[in-house]
Amino acid sequence: MSCRGRLVRLALLLLLAWLPAAxxxxxxxxxxxxxxxxxxxxxxxxxxxxxxGTVRLIGIDAPEKTPSERDQTFLKLGVARRRLREVHGExxxxxxxxxKGQQVxxxxxxxxxxxxxRLLAYVRLPDGRLLNRVLLEQGLVIAYRRFAFTLKDxxxxxxxxxxxxxxxxxxx
Length: 172
Fold this sequence. Notes:
172 residues
């Protein structure tokens, strides 16, 4: 291999090594991204993040603490009724134990707020994982179907995987 060929190869390797780090920095430094600390967990899909206020996680829906008409969405997907309240508690406990007190990065889709004034965000954990997806993978929430959002196909796939594995909501 010629000297020029080795230089080109080295340059490509350096570029490939740099790209993931650059992407991570860009996501956190984006003008649209905001950092904050989770100070309260209302349930698996709603957090209080200081200093930004109440944050509703984009693209997911957690079972409610008490029965409501929203249960029908879960039931239509094949979730056993008895699992709804159980998984509400599991999702709440998991989020308190793993997210409360953590510094997170919020990124946004459109719209930035829901009709209740809550921020709609993807929440990136300190280890780089996307909380919205982690909750889907554990079967603690379902993918939101009513509105469009950027990661909808990815979230539906994560939900399907949790269902196939029989975890969380999908446990029989």
